[in-house]
Design brief:
alpha/beta, Enzyme I, Chain A, domain 2, eight-stranded parallel β-sheet, five-stranded mixed β-sheet, 13 strands, about 50% helix, binds phosphoenolpyruvate, binds magnesium ion
């Protein structure tokens, strides 16, 4: 018996408190009865079907898809009973799952496979999922990696419905249950009844969890630390209840911030906008007080399908976002795929590159394939007729690229006008991402062609320091406070400000409160970030004095050592927070 178990035994008679360390990714504390989740994998056998049975099998699969869609829609209705942030998270997953079952490559692929290979539907689902997962796995992209889990969970749902194996485990959960699983992915949560779950941890890596827990044990989960405590002592429960209440107070405080302006103590207003990867995130952006959408990534339109999205489909999506923003501005970015981020729908148009990060990607790909660029521009132009929309170009490395897109935009606009489309009088502003070091260094030349800049610090850091952030061996060298990165950012800001041109930051740096004083001190007045980061960045801005931040930014820019830069910034933040 380990020492922590002995002390628990001494304190509480027969019940032994057991602490299991793990990796937590989602802050929050939950206390409740344990529910042990069974693994998602269901073994299925392959059966070969005679020709005469193929049609019936396809019908069986169509029915399973319909049942799955009904189940997901039902779960969606139930999410309204969840706390707001959980409702959004689960709602967003359910939308993703619904999309995967609606005329997707998955559904079409399974249907073809049943007919082509003459096999049973459940085996066809499994093979199709494996193939999709394999093609995703070869793309080294965290966003797509997360989608693999979703696709597998959708596959499990289909198989369960085919073999009529219900979700007994989740439906039998006690109220306020805490789900324990060796690996609980965000996608798993979409299988659960949201009204019964007290709180769900996203991904917990707690080795040996299932072997050590029993159903209905009382469990405490600390989502920030990643600790799971089984059979906690009374004082442990009291301690965690107090922490849970403190977190809840903080959450309410951040919620109240939503209605307050992002203004510094000396009265300078900052525009905080949201980055969207999926339209479903819009409600969260608005709920968190986004004043606009500073970056709408359009890659989702190309994912999980074999064909390319047409102009009308894209227009419908952009226009819905414009209308959803009710007059607040949006910045929609043209396709940022290519290199390692290749969607299946593009794979036959782009050759493999020996060095994908430096290859045919983003605006380079769009300019080489006008069948990609023109429908996007047309859809954006039409959506700009419905409200304030700006067009942003990814991975710009020279002014000629902006000129070429502007010519294409004018051409597409003429074509649309001939067709009688309703367009804004003036063409929408055309902006350049500053995310290639050369673009930052040539910012004055780019500023002559572009209407606005958006600094993409994710790629700017990666390309400036030659660090692939997804490569763990060098991830520790990824440093936004490297003087080279800061000088490039400063250079771009100065080029824009000289012309009175709007400039924002939309890389991750904008979403970290730690960097707010530095970015504002360098002259930025617009930051765009993941919706969840808005309240905390706003809170930080409201504690800052712009005159002091500007002075500190100047002192920082005199430094050449990133350690010294970090301590100048952190000391400044500590003083600002103490006020
Ligand atoms: C960036 O590079 O900082 C950026 C915002 O673009 P993405 O993260 O989509 O590459
Ligand atoms: Mg980028």
């Amino acid at each position: 018996m380990r020492s922590d178990e002995v002390s628990g035994l001494a304190a509480q008679g027969t019940l032994v408190e057991r602490r299991l360390p793990g990796l937590g990714v989602s802050p929050g504390i939950a206390i409740g009865p344990a529910h042990l989740a069974e693994g998602g994998y269901i073994p299925v056998r392959e059966r070969h079907l005679p020709e005469a049975e193929i049609e019936r099998e396809r019908g069986r699969f169509t029915d399973a898809v319909a049942v799955s869609l009904r189940q997901l829609n039902k779960l969606k209705v139930k999410t309204s009973g969840l706390p707001e942030s959980a409702a959004e998270e689960v709602g967003y997953l359910l939308d993703a799952h619904l999309a995967m079952l609606s005329n997707s490559r998955l559904v079409r692929g399974v249907d073809h496979r049943i007919a082509r290979s003459r096999i049973n539907a459940e085996r066809a689902v499994q093979l199709e999922i494996d193939e999709i997962a394999e093609s995703f796995a070869s793309m080294r992209d965290a966003y797509l990696a997360a989608r693999i889990d979703d696709i597998r969970v959708v596959g499990t749902r289909l198989i369960r419905n085919l073999i009529k194996k219900p979700y007994a485990t989740y439906s039998a959960m006690p109220e306020g249950a805490i789900i324990l699983a060796d690996e609980l992915t965000p996608a798993d949560t979409a299988l659960m009844d949201p009204q019964r779950v007290a709180g769900f941890a996203t991904v917990f890596a707690v080795p040996g969890l299932l072997e050590r827990a029993r159903a209905d044990d009382t469990v405490v989960i600390d989502g920030a630390e990643g600790t799971v405590i089984l059979d906690p002592r009374a004082e442990t429960i009291a301690e965690y209840e107090a922490r849970r209440d403190a977190l809840e107070r903080e959450r309410r405080h951040l919620g109240r911030l939503r209605k307050l302006p992002a203004v510094t103590r000396d009265g300078i207003e900052i525009t905080l906008e949201a980055n969207l990867e999926l339209p479903a995130e819009l409600s969260r952006a608005l709920a968190n007080g986004a004043m606009g959408l500073g970056l709408v990534r359009s890659e989702f339109l190309y994912m999980n399908r074999d064909d390319l999205p047409g102009e009308d489909e894209q227009y419908a999506v952009f226009s819905a976002l414009v209308r959803g923003m009710e007059g607040r501005p949006l910045t929609v970015r043209t396709l940022d795929l290519g290199g390692e981020k290749i969607a299946r729908s593009l794979s036959d148009r782009v050759e493999e590159s020996a060095n994908p990060a430096l290859g045919l990607r983003a605006i380079r790909l769009s300019l080489q394939h006008r069948r990609l660029l023109d429908p996007q521009l047309a859809a954006m132009l039409r959506a700009a007729g419905d409200g304030p929309l700006r067009i942003l170009l990814p991975m710009i490395s020279n002014a000629g690229e902006i000129r070429q897109v502007r010519e294409a935009l004018e051409q597409v606009a003429r074509r649309l006008r001939r067709r009688g489309a309703r367009l804004p009088k003036a063409l929408p502003p055309l902006g350049a991402m500053i995310e290639v070091p050369g673009a930052a260094l040539a910012a004055d030349a780019l500023a002559a062609e572009a209407d606005f800049f958006a600094i993409g610090t994710n790629d700017l850091v990666q390309y400036t320091l030659a660090i692939d952030r997804s490569d763990e061996q060098v991830a520790h060298l990824y440093n936004p406070l490297h003087p080279a990165v800061l000088r490039l950012i400063q250079f771009a800001i100065e080029a824009a400000l000289r012309r009175g041109m709007p400039i924002s930051v939309c890389g991750e740096m904008a979403g970290e409160p730690r960097f707010a004083a530095l970015l504002l001190g360098l002259g930025l007045r617009n930051l765009s970030m993941a919706p969840r980061n808005i309240p905390r960045v706003k809170q930080r801005i409201r504690s800052l004095d712009m005159v002091a931040a500007t002075r500190r930014a100047r002192a920082i820019m005199d430094q050449s050592d990133s350690g010294r830069i970090a301590s100048l910034l952190d000391d400044f933040n500590a003083v600002a927070l103490a006020h």
